[in-house]
Fold this sequence. Notes:
Elements: E1 2-8, H1 11-16, E2 21-26, H2 34-42, H3 46-52, E3 63-67, E4 76-81, H4 87-104, E5 109-113, H5 122-135, E6 140-145, H6 147-161, E7 165-169
Parallel strand pairs: 1-6, 1-7, 2-4, 2-5, 5-6
Antiparallel strand pairs: 3-4
Amino acid sequence: MRRIEVAKLSMATLDALDVGAIGLLVGEERPLLGLAGLVDWRLAGALTRALAGGLYAATPGEALLLPTAGRLPVARVVVQGQALGGGQAGFAAAVRLLAEVVARTGAASFAAGALPVSGLSVAEACRAWLAAAAAVPGDRLVLLGEPRALAAELNTARIAARTEIEVAQFSAGPAAMVR
């Protein structure tokens, strides 16, 4: 059974992740917010430099694979461009594409930030993540955000969609030392 775990978006959670990759949705927002901001901080600004230097534009459909060089407990970060103002349909398409790109890296599990998405409710975002988790290979997705709200909305969406996905709280052992 596939599993979606929810966890608080924090540096401590980021350091305790035990997944194959981190998936980020990045649009035009600067500075980077949410999980993208925390990951960029851990990567010493590598994503900001890629954006500012023109290496990566974060346009819809454009993906970037970043190695973590031991700065995070995962080997790779997949960044997917997202259009702002695309509503639920645009967000759902971006989430599904991100999940597909992460799956092509060979990662069986990944972590992603649930929000912030301008103009999109937590319920709408959770429906998109639930659909993506059901549609792509892999056994586990960790969504970072506000755990109680995420768990409630994911369970509501899971029941409505009648999907066989387990929703659980993220639990991690002691975090590995990150360089």
